[in-house]
Design goal:
By secondary structure, this protein is α/β, with parallel strands linked by helices. It is 39% helix and 17% strand. The protein contains five helices and five strands, in the order βααβαβαββα. Strand 3, helix 4 and strand 4 form a beta-alpha-beta unit. It starts with a strand and ends with a helix.
Length: 149
């Protein structure tokens, strides 16, 4: 199984560190990417790290991952609660999918409690701050290693 993991980030995450730091913290998306790449190296994973405010681009990367990746870590951001299209795309991807949310969504507005993406996800990291990405990568690595055994 491929050791390439797509790390996909949805809308407004390009503003991480600037937008509502009291909720999302002060780390930037560049910090998250750097941390993911450093951990991936120790886990012997390769990373394709992407962010888009456009739903179709995320879908295109999921389709691309079908041919290349051993897993997807996705923070769909606001698309979590609205996008059946992301769910449908993820349902075409067989390897593991881990959903990440920086904030604890269940302590926030009621509309944030529902996730279409969770209907496909093999795990959800919520409320761990940006460390949730690293936890997700560790889980993906474990699932890839378990599949190989």
């Amino acid at each position: 199984m491929s050791r390439l993991v797509y790390v996909l980030n949805g809308p407004n995450l390009n503003l991480l560190g600037k937008r509502q730091p009291h909720i999302y913290g002060h780390e930037t998306l560049a910090d998250v990417e750097s941390d993911c790449r450093a951990l991936a190296k120790t886990l012997e994973l390769d990373i394709a790290f992407h962010q888009s405010n456009r739903e179709y681009e995320l879908i295109d990367w999921i389709h691309e991952a079908r041919e290349k990746a051993g897993g997807i870590v996705i923070n769909p951001a606001a698309f979590t609660h609205t996008s059946v299209a992301l769910l449908d795309a993820l349902n075409t991807f067989e390897p593991p999918v881990i959903e990440v949310h920086i904030s604890q969504v269940h302590k926030r507005e009621a509309f944030r409690h529902h996730s279409y993406v969770s209907l496909r996800s093999d795990g959800v990291m919520a409320g761990f701050g940006t460390q949730g990405y690293q936890l997700a990568l560790r889980r993906i690595a474990h699932l890839i290693d378990t599949k190989k055994a």
